Each structure stands twice: as structure tokens, then as C-alpha cells.
UniProtKB/TrEMBL annotation:
Keywords: FAD, Flavoprotein, Oxidoreductase. Residues 216-344 form the Acyl-CoA dehydrogenase/oxidase C-terminal domain. This is Acyl-CoA dehydrogenase family protein. Belongs to the acyl-CoA dehydrogenase family. Residues 39-132 form the Acyl-CoA dehydrogenase/oxidase N-terminal domain. The lineage of its organism: Bacteria, Bacillati, Actinomycetota, Actinomycetes, Pseudonocardiales. InterPro entries: AcylCo_DH-like_C, AcylCo_DH/oxidase_C, AcylCoA_DH/ox_N, AcylCoA_DH/ox_N_sf, AcylCoA_DH/oxidase_NM_dom_sf. Coiled coil: none annotated. It comes from Pseudonocardia xishanensis.
Length: 374
């Protein structure tokens, strides 16, 4: 998702308007159909995938249940620089942006890593934007606190000691000496209810600046969570594919039967579509957040639906074994819903996207009326 690489390929070396035209063409392609990555971004994705492949096998995921948190994996991820990937270098991070967070989140989902990296990376960026120095404390945010005041079901809330939230007209930080008890859930996610009256409350920002910072953080959380869910779905399909190749029936692998192969192809296409929408949303959030503010909500709504549907079909590929807790595919199936829930269901996400979508459609209608093209 690079602007520079495409501009260099298109540019003529001339000054003035020809360079700007090349930039405009490059941006247009990036907006609509270019989901390619920098070499550095590909290296980041591959590095995180190798790290989690070694540090987070299925045994580690199971051992972290039911709390859904592995302190040793968190420590190793911090030492590897993954925890601070989205922070500026002067803040002790790796200097990455939303796209880099999305790439890490996808690998977290693919490995089902029992660490609250998505919410921590986003909340840390929010606090850094307010000039807060990072420390070793796990932080999270309450993504629905603006729409639903009161007690909040916080992602990573069972291990976080600080949570950013929207209360009234203020951006606040809730702090506790110890996290609250985990909210019971079949997905073994470290969810917990945070109540506004518990612990310490600090006002971080007010007014327009507070609203802008909060909107940015929620958008980043949605697109990063969508990426984690798309990665989860990708991991589920990979498990189902490997099982279908190895499982023998009627003299050959079950992958040769159309009922299996077509299911896997459909699932693979759904995952690829979800990933493309996530990458597009991430590009806009990082480069032009005001241009398409509805995309993070769309990306999360779609990824949540895809993850649950793909996981269910991957379970079916495994037959009766897939319904048992001993099957690794069950780890994906149970987490698909648990990871989706804190971000809001389809109705909430559609409501969040509706105003921006209405403005976009109005603008397109005006363009058509003026004789322009979409």
C-alpha cells in the first residue's frame, strides 16, 4: 500500500503539474484497486508470522484458556518490538502506522495468539497522541462507550489496567489497580465489564480535539479487529484445507469431492474479499481518514460475518471430529464470535456507517447530475 513506489513508476521526472498528475494517478489506483505492500511491510508480515509460528502453537493457545492471556507470549512480543509497532520511534515504538497494525493483527488472528495486541496497539497510539509516555501497562479502549453509555464490555479488559473511553463530551481514561473479573465467554477471550464508577477517572481531552482523537481511535480499532478476524478466517480455511487433503475416504482424500472443494474455494474467496476491504479501509484511515469514514465499520461488519461463516464451514469439513473441543478447528470457531462482539453487531456498525454513506451517495448523485463520472 505504497504511494512512493507507484509514483516513481509513473513519474517522468518533470517538475510541476506533470508530477502532480502522476501523484493523482497513483492515489487513484491505490484508492480503488491496489492492495500491494511495501517490501518492508511484507518483511514485517513474514517476521510476525514466523515469530508466532514458533511462539504460539495450538498448545499455547489451549494452555491460555479459559482466560485467553499468555503473559510469557506478551513478554516475548514486547521484546520483539511487536507490541510497540504502531508507536512513533520517539515514543519508544517502531514507527509503524495503521497499515502495519493491520498486518500484525492479521497474524494475531491467524495464530489465535492469546494476547490483547489489537486493542493495546490502538489505545497506546491514542495515549501517545495526547503526549502520554508509554509504559509496561496493558491498555485498552471501550469502543462502544460513545453509543452505549454506562458499563462497557472491554476487549482485553480482563488484563488491562487502563481503558480509554468516551463519557458525555469528554475523552477519559479509566484506571484500576487490578483488572476486573473476566466476563464468561465460550471463546476464551479476555473480555471484562468496566464500570465508570470503579477506579480512577481522568479527563484526557475535551471539545473538538477529543472528538477527533476518539473517532480516529475507534476507526483504527475497527479496521484492526477486522484484520484479526480476516486472519482468523484465513487460519481456519488453512486448517480445513490441510485436513481435507489428509483425510482419506472412498479410496482418496476428501478434498477431491466437490462438496468439500467448492466449500473451500468459496471460503477462500470470502476471506480474500474481507482482506481487500480491510486493506482499503486501512489505507483510508492512515492517509485520508475524512474521505471514507464508513469503511472501518463496513470492514469489521463484513469480517465478523465472514469469520463466523467460514469457521462454521471449516468445522463441517472436519465432520463430526470438528465439533469436538479436541479439534484445533474448534479454537477458531469459538473465537470468531467472541472477537467480534466488543466492536458491536451488524446493526451498530451499519448505524455508524450510515451518515458517512449518505454523504457519499449525495456527493456521487451531484457528480452525476453535473455530467461527471463516478
Amino acid at each position: 500500500m505504497s504511494t512512493v513506489d507507484v509514483v516513481v513508476a509513473d513519474g517522468t521526472g518533470a517538475e510541476g503539474s506533470s508530477v502532480q498528475t502522476a501523484v493523482d494517478r497513483a492515489l487513484a489506483r491505490l484508492r480503488w484497486n491496489d492492495y500491494s505492500l511495501h517490501t518492508e511491510q511484507e518483511d514485517l508480515r513474514d517476521t510476525v508470522r514466523r515469530f508466532l509460528g514458533r511462539a504460539c502453537p495450538a498448545e499455547t493457545v489451549r494452555a491460555a484458556e479459559p482466560g485467553g492471556f499468555d503473559p510469557e507470549l506478551w513478554r516475548r512480543a514486547a521484546e520483539a518490538g511487536i507490541v510497540g509497532i504502531g508507536l512513533a520511534e520517539e515514543a519508544g515504538g517502531q514507527g509503524g502506522g495503521v497499515v502495519e497494525i493491520v498486518l500484525v493483527a492479521a497474524e494475531i488472528g491467524r495464530a489465535l495468539a492469546p494476547v490483547p495486541l489489537v486493542e493495546h496497539m490502538v489505545a497506546s497510539r491514542l495515549l501517545a497522541a495526547l503526549g502520554r509516555e508509554p509504559d509496561d501497562t496493558i491498555v485498552s479502549l471501550a469502543p462502544l462507550s460513545d453509543e452505549r453509555p454506562g458499563a462497557q464490555l472491554v476487549p482485553g479488559g480482563a488484563v488491562a489496567r487502563r481503558v480509554a473511553a468516551w463519557v458525555g463530551d469528554d475523552l477519559v481514561l479509566w484506571s484500576r489497580s487490578a483488572p476486573p473479573q473476566q466476563a464468561a465467554n465460550d471463546g476464551a477471550a479476555p473480555l471484562a465489564w468496566w464500570h465508570p464508577g470503579d477506579g480512577r477517572v481522568e479527563v484526557l481531552a475535551t471539545g473538538d480535539r477529543a472528538r477527533a482523537l476518539w473517532t480516529t481511535a475507534v476507526g483504527e480499532y475497527r479496521v484492526a479487529t477486522a484484520s484479526a478476524l480476516a486472519g482468523l478466517a484465513s487460519g481456519a480455511v488453512a486448517h480445513a484445507r490441510d485436513y481435507a487433503i489428509q483425510r482419506q475416504a472412498f479410496g482418496g482424500p476428501i478434498a477431491r469431492f466437490q462438496a468439500i472443494s467448492h466449500t473451500l474455494v468459496d471460503a477462500t474467496m470470502a476471506v480474500a474479499t474481507a482482506e481487500n476491504l480491510v486493506h482499503r479501509a486501512a489505507w483510508y484511515v492512515q492517509h485520508e481518514p475524512a474521505e471514507r469514514p464508513e469503511l472501518p465499520a463496513f470492514a469489521l461488519s463484513n469480517a465478523a460475518a465472514v469469520a463466523q461463516r467460514v469457521c462454521a464451514r471449516s468445522v463441517h469439513v472436519h465432520g463430526g471430529f470438528g465439533l469436538t473441543l479436541e479439534a484445533d478447528i474448534s479454537l477458531y470457531h469459538r473465537r470468531a464470535a467472541a472477537w467480534s462482539f466488543p466492536g458491536g453487531g451488524p446493526r451498530t456498525l451499519r448505524a455508524a456507517a450510515a451518515p458517512a454513506l449518505d454523504r457519499l451517495l449525495t456527493r456521487l448523485d451531484r457528480t452525476d447530475s453535473a455530467g461527471g463520472t463516478r
